[in-house]
Amino acid sequence: MVKISPAQNDISEKGRDTLRLTISEAETMFLNKNLDLIAQRFSIDSAKATVITARLFDNPELDFSNAFYNPDSHNFFGPEVSAQISQLIRLAGKRKKAVNFAKSGVDVAQFQFYDLMRTLRFILRNDFYNIYFLQQSAGVYETEIASLKDIVSAYREQVNKGNIAPADLLRIQSQLYTLEAEYNNLQTNINQIQIEFKGMIRANPLQYFLPEPDLNDLNENAVSATSYQALIDSAMINRPDLKALNAGIDQSKYNLVLQKSYATPDITVNANYDRLGSYIRNYNAIGISVPLPLFNRNQGNIQNARVQLDVSKTIYEAEMDKVKNEVTANYITALQSQKLLQSIDPRFQDNMKKLIEQVTLNFQKRNISILEFLDHYDAYKQNVLQINELRFNEMSALEQLNLSIGKTLFNK
Prior knowledge:
Elements lengths: L2 E4 L10 E5 L1 H11 L1 H21 L5 E6 L2 E2 L4 E2 L4 E9 L4 H68 L4 H36 L6 E4 L16 H11 L1 H22 L5 E9 L6 E8 L9 H44 L5 H17 L5 H36 L7
Parallel strand pairs: 2-7
Antiparallel strand pairs: 1-2, 3-6, 4-5, 6-8, 8-9
Helix pairs in contact: 1-3, 2-3, 3-4, 3-6, 3-9, 5-7, 6-7, 7-9, 8-9
């Protein structure tokens, strides 16, 4: 369930509402509300309407005429009447072949929809984790800024009393202003990503999004335990863009068959009636008409259909090579990201946090110099930021690998 509550520790604006979502809740909102997906669904309905049209029979035609003016008798609308009804009959299975061609268009539209969903879903999930880890980094800045503000306030009193040199206060203030500038840039980055994320789920733009990821069940050995060939096979089977291209090949085949059928002429069956306009009073007849395929046998469209089929096959083969390269590159990146994180002591962050607390305490007791204090603070900040970046890079690599294989196999 989506949870909206007043912000208790709002990173950007005090008193602003927060939108808290898990990844599954965000995906549900995305699937139900995203306008790009809704628009793409209409293209499927449009393709299905084309199938309906292809199934319809041609309408019969009715011709009727009545003598308008007789110059001999000077009468209007005389007794002479003629009528004809005709029906076009398509040969060579054109109607069935047109239906098959239209159905293949539905398949293409559906796979294009799933491919758009796959791509947008990757952006959604990637933004979700990016926002989370950037907010974790922002928390480090908030802690340091609050701490330095307290120190600046205390130092200002001591400077006024003459106990501390003004240069020491200026040094602390300089560090504080640097942190505030970096923090502001970080918040700007977070806000930009939030704009994209909230736009994808159509959330209230005034709410501040706080992701709630579940990182406890992340299998750090999931990538290395998975066969590379299995990933390639998954991509070949599951990628909707490959399915769309393969459906495009089928569509080109159906089009070639349909164009060949147009070389066979259709016939028109007609029934005629004429009163007082023929050698007998009430003339009636049936007949057929058929064009003679002496010159135009649809040669150009048939040749074009053959070319389009070759083009479709070539594009599909090229995309298969591209997909294999994508899977390979993302597989290697994911392995490297997980290996790098595994090399970091899991107790490192906690130890660094305890260390900085001790450093702050020793500085307040004047057991260490201001330069040592600032160096420790800067090292702590850089390490935390770097680890958050590495953790996001791991999540992003897993999401990129999921995108390339067309299936959520990692980081479920």
